[in-house]
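Bumping with the actual sequence this time:
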Amino acid sequence: MEQAINAIENEPQHTVEIVVHITEKLGEERRIGLVTALGRTEYIVSAEFCPLRYHLILVRYNRDKFSSQEVLASVKGQNYNARLIGPI
């Protein structure tokens, strides 16, 4: 239980998680590349694909510094067709 509490405490206070739908089929290499690229974005805290739903990516970001539209633009900037589904 202590690990879960520490993980929450280490996250920035004002984060939100959204779902982005990737409209094209991605292999493992492309998924890893996208997660890596998003991880380099300053205000994105984490990005991961939903297990067994490789067309959905969960992105957690600092809402005080970044918007959902900027997250979507970051995905599209990596040459992926995507649309915003919404918050978790």
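The tokens above came from a reply further down the thread. The two ends are 23 Å apart (CA to CA).
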